[in-house]
């Protein structure tokens, strides 16, 4: 029986030729697995033919040719630059389908962000090109990016890339006049500011040991911090979003939130943590301990922006049909995937162990990614099925539609509104998600959303309906296995997925 030390240190355990063959086999197998995983993901992104979550608001505004709707929305949320990102796509919506074009740009900037993460890995670690590539792939495979099934994340994809490349140029002391203002614009996603700061701090430790460089970096951090809060002051939230993303200091010191964030990353990157523990066991050096401590602190530091507004990712949402909390991990993921090159570097004297670690990390990442895609595909399938079923029904009356679901979670009112709009081409019904008191909820909605643009934004009829219809929805899509899900999804068909029954109309 061999010990780990014998297996991974004793060169007589097997000959070099056999080791090389095994490594090549592992490499080819990993590349094939990643190719399959990436193909499934891209097929899911680019063939959905619908939108999810907040993305339906922009999609609806584009279909109405009312960019003022999303301009007002983002402005109220303090996102002064974001509407112009969508304007760039809106300009071409009559030539290329908006949803397809938004998807292409989202995936493009995600790929560019992954390449930048690869540059970061090679900047701080002594690794071959192969590990740089695998680090970029590991970043791309994060289940957080599966949220990009909603086109609302085009903004996040673009600004994350802008943050990474601008920070790299600042650290290289290049194009400062261009990158500093662009970096501020990238703070439309608030968590990008801590990401930029943490990368600068990492450079102070590993690349900029001289006092002059550290003073420049300190100046950059001050500029970023001051610029972030200045922008929040100049472009405050107002209207419907008056209290949106309010920062509370008590949240920052909530230990429970950090433990939840740690739990998420412990599950998501379990093989990386196990390999890191082995590296610490066999390389009992302060340098190795400091390296992994810095990366772990980087993960937590990049979670502060979300924790400050009391938003923490839910582990259970990784494979669920609904849920958007994984967006709270976008920037922490940069530091989480840096565990891979750190492990590779730390296990330099244990070649077999580090190849085993590499294989385990990437296989686990592929499995999680497929699982996450399966969940979102089921959500798209449910929407396709409901749209198909609604088209086959007799036209619904112009009432409030109180929706009760079985086998699927309750959507937001505006997600139901988008489904009805795609089925009927109008907004004459008011969908309500399993309301206990429809009359009260209708009055509250029309009391809150008084402006015409608000009603258009949230798929509301101009006048409050004076009747109520109960709709029961049932589906088994949530119980489908992966094979059935992928086959049905790629077929593009939406029939025989959802059953709908309608009650008699009632009046208040």
TrEMBL record:
Signal sequence extent: none
Keyword match Repeat: no
TM regions (residue ranges): 21-46, 131-148, 191-208, 215-235, 264-282, 289-308, 328-348, 355-372
Entry keywords, A to Z: Membrane, Transmembrane, Transmembrane helix
Protein name: Glucosyl transferase GtrII
């Amino acid at each position: 029986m061999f010990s780990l030390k014998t297996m991974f240190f004793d060169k007589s355990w097997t000959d070099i030729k056999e080791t090389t063959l095994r490594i090549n086999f592992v490499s080819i197998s990993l590349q094939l697995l990643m190719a399959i995983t990436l193909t499934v993901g891209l097929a899911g992104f680019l063939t959905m033919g619908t939108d999810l979550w907040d993305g339906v608001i922009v999609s609806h505004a584009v279909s109405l040719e009312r960019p003022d709707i999303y301009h007002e929305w983002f402005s109220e949320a303090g996102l002064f630059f974001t509407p112009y990102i969508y304007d760039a796509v809106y300009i071409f919506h009559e030539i290329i389908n908006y949803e397809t074009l938004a998807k292409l740009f989202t995936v493009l900037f995600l790929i560019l962000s992954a390449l930048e993460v690869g540059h970061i890995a090679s900047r701080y670690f002594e690794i071959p090109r192969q590990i740089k590539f695998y680090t970029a792939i590991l970043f791309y495979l994060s289940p957080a990016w599966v949220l990009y099934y909603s086109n609302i994340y085009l903004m996040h994809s673009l600004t994350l890339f802008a943050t990474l490349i601008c920070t790299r140029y600042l650290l290289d002391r290049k194009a400062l006049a261009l990158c500093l203002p662009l970096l501020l614009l990238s703070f439309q996603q608030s968590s990008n500011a801590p990401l930029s700061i943490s990368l600068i701090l990492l450079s102070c430790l590993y690349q900029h040991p001289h006092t002059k460089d550290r003073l420049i970096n300190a100046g950059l951090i001050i500029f970023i911090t001051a610029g972030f809060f200045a922008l929040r002051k100049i472009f405050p939230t107002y209207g419907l979003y008056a209290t949106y993303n309010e920062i509370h200091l008590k949240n920052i010191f909530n230990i429970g939130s950090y433990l939840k964030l740690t739990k998420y990353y412990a599950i998501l990157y379990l093989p990386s943590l196990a390999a890191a523990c082995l590296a610490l066991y066999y390389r009992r050096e302060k340098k190795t301990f400091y390296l992994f401590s810095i990366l772990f602190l980087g993960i937590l530091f990049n979670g502060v922006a979300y924790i400050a507004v009391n938003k923490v990712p839910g582990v259970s949402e990784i494979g669920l049909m609904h849920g958007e909390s994984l967006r709270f991990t976008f920037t922490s993921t940069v530091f989480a995937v840096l565990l891979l090159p750190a492990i590779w570097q730390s296990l330099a004297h244990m070649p077999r162990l580090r190849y085993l670690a590499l294989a385990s990390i990437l296989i686990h990442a592929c499995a999680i990614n497929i699982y996450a895609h399966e969940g979102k595909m089921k959500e798209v399938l449910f929407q396709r099925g409901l749209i198909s079923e609604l088209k086959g029904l007799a036209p619904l009356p112009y009432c409030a539609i109180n929706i009760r679901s079985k086998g699927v979670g309750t959507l937001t009112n505006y997600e139901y509104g988008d489904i009805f709009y795609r089925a009927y081409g109008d907004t004459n019904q008011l969908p309500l998600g399993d309301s206990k008191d429809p009359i009260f909820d209708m009055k509250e909605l029309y009391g809150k959303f008084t402006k015409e643009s608000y009603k258009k934004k949230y798929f509301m009829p101009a006048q409050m309906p004076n009747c109520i219809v109960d709709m029961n929805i049932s589906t088994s899509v949530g119980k489908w296995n992966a094979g059935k899900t992928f086959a049905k999804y790629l077929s593009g068909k939406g029939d025989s997925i959802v059953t709908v029954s309608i009650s008699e109309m009632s009046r208040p």
